[in-house]
């Protein structure tokens, strides 16, 4: 009868289903080991680990640890327990649609990040980030492009201009938050960060167009983290469309500038006019591709770091008091103008420690993506050609062996420099973040104006933390925000 049929189905789902999964799980790993053995014999070894399930690899485990259990560091800790100690700091796995090796020790990470011949850049979807973008090109082309970009954003002279351009906007934003009284910090900080980016990169003031650009970027970034299924209705499909629309918008701006010969002292202007030693300039599509990818690299990351600064300071009154004291002193020395300049930075030592500690704990990029260009041997193991390599930087920053009480916000730990190779928040080697000084500057400026003029309290100090897509308190850090009462 009906019951018998149900029983049959239940038996299948709860009995045979898991058994089949288990068989598939073993088969997947055996398959990769066999293929490796056929190619290399017994002389070489794959790193320890497990390839997971067919098609999915260890995606479910990653989702479990990052999204459901909200214990992201357990993902690597579980591997250490299952496959022995920290070992060579290498584990085999299958993630983001590719067989992969995870590098998660200072030595292994350094090895990967500093061997451009062995490991190339590999973003899960290069096209979304931009084919001619600095994050995708290699070798001499990469060095040249990087030179242009760091000259435009990361040099003291550029940072000086940027500081002057950004501050009025930040001061206005903070005053408006105090008028609101209660804010969702993640949202407000994103808004002001984006307004600053539009100004720095393409000299655009907030308008319906910049709102549209903002929306396009949000959908594009969502696609970067989505499963690459490309048909109408998927996040990935919509992200590809957004990328094309963004390229068109920036292209139009570039053409308009060329037509009227308009010169702008912004990133686009810088990239349009810069020349290498042979007098060659960037092609138009390179300028556009790189502006788009710079927004991807610098927008959410910076906004997220600033949000975490407000969050941790709200929970650390002692740190906030020290920060305030230092910044009040800087502010007093300036008289009426409360804008800081590049020259004030040497007097803001505690602020600098707050900046580093915030970025360490924010873990904005949990891992960096590379691909093995050839079979590469390290510490007795082989990383096979074509496999992706995930440089797991997050685990360095949350390892009690590297940082005492790693989950405690403690700016004073920066009285001592970090142990070599344990601080890779901006990556390392020849691809180290091209905007790291700009990111630090934006945080510093924010901290200055926040601490001298305002006070704030988290309304849900015990809100759960989400780790996907980016680490943030689940409520976006809702806080009461008001002018400092003196
Ligand atoms: C707190 C904020 C930021 C964090 C945590 C961060 C982190 C990183 C990391 C980890 C990398 C290395 C990626 C890799 O090796 O594959 C990177 C690269 C990069 N970042 Fe940032 N970043 C931040 C802000 C910015 C800003 C503000 C900009 C510029 C506007 C920027 C531009 C870049 C660029 C262009 C690269 C690629 C460099 C290359 O491939 O040569 N970043 N960033």
Keyword list:
16 helices, 12 strands, Cytochrome p450, single chain, binds protoporphyrin IX containing FE, 486 residues, three-stranded antiparallel β-sheet
CATH topology tier name of the domain at 129-363 and 398-483: Cytochrome p450
Task: Report the total helices.
Answer: 16
Mean pLDDT: 93
Structure ligands: protoporphyrin IX containing FE
| CATH class bucket of the domain at 129-363 and 398-483 | Mainly Alpha
Order of helices and strands: HHHEEHEHHHEHHHHHHHEEEEHHEEEE
Number of strands: 12
Tell the overall outline: globular
Low-confidence stretches: none
The helix-and-strand class reads: alpha+beta
User: Order of strands in the sheet with the most strands?
Assistant: 1-2-8-5-3
Strand content: 5-15%
| Proportion in helices | 40-55%
Give the termini separation.
79 Å
Pathway: Plant hormone biosynthesis; Hormone biosynthesis
Organism: Aegilops tauschii subsp. strangulata (Goatgrass)
Pfam family, one: p450
Keywords: Heme, Iron, Membrane, Metal-binding, Monooxygenase, Oxidoreductase, Transmembrane, Transmembrane helix
């Amino acid at each position: 009868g009906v019951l018998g049929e149900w029983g049959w189905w239940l038996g299948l789902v709860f009995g045979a289903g898991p058994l089949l999964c288990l068989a598939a799980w073993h088969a997947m790993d055996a398959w990769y080991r066999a293929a490796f053995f056929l190619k290399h014999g017994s002389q070489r070894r794959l790193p320890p680990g497990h390839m997971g399930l067919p098609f999915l690899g260890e995606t479910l485990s990653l989702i479990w640890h990052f999204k459901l259990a909200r214990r992201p560091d357990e993902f690597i800790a579980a591997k250490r327990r299952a496959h022995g100690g920290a070992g060579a700091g290498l584990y085999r796995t299958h993630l983001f649609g590719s067989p992969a090796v995870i590098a998660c020790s200072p030595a292994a990470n350094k090895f990967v990040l500093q061997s451009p011949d062995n490991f190339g850049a590999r973003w899960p979807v290069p096209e979304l980030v931009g084919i001619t973008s600095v994050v995708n090109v290699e070798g001499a082309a990469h060095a040249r492009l990087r030179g242009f970009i760091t000259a435009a954003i990361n040099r003291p002279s550029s940072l000086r201009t940027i500081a002057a351009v950004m501050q009025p906007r930040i001061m206005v934003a903070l005053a408006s938050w105090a008028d609101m009284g209660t804010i969702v910090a993640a949202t407000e900080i994103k808004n002001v960060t984006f307004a600053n980016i539009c100004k720095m990169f393409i000299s655009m003031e907030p308008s319906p167009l910049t709102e549209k650009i903002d929306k396009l970027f949000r959908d594009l970034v969502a696609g970067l983290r989505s499963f690459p299924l490309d048909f109408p209705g998927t996040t990935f499909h919509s992200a590809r469309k957004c990328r094309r629309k963004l390229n068109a918008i920036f292209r139009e701006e570039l053409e308009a500038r060329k037509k009227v010969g308009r010169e702008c002292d912004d990133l686009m202007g810088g990239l349009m006019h810069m020349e290498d030693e042979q007098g060659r300039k960037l092609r138009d599509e390179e300028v556009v591709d790189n502006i788009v990818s710079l927004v991807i690299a610098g927008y959410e990351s910076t906004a997220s770091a600033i949000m975490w600064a407000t969050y941790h300071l709200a929970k650390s009154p002692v740190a906030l008091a020290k920060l305030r004291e230092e910044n009040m002193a800087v502010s007093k020395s300036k008289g009426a103008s409360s804008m800081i300049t590049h020259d004030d930075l040497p007097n803001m030592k505690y602020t600098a420690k707050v900046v580093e500690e915030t970025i360490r704990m924010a873990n904005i990029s949990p891992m960096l993506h590379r691909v093995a260009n050839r079979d590469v041997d390290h510490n007795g193991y082989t990383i096979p050609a074509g496999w992706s390599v995930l440089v797991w930087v997050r685990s360095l920053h949350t390892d009690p062996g590297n940082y005492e009480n790693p989950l405690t916000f403690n700016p004073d730990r920066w009285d001592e420099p970090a142990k070599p190779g344990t601080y890779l928040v901006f990556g390392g080697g020849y691809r180290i973040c091209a905007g790291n000084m700009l990111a630090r500057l934006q945080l510093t400026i924010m901290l200055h104006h926040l601490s001298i003029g305002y006070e704030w309290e988290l309304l849900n100090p015990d809100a759960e933390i989400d780790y996907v897509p980016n680490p943030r308190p689940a409520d976006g850090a809702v806080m009461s925000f008001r002018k400092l009462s003196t």
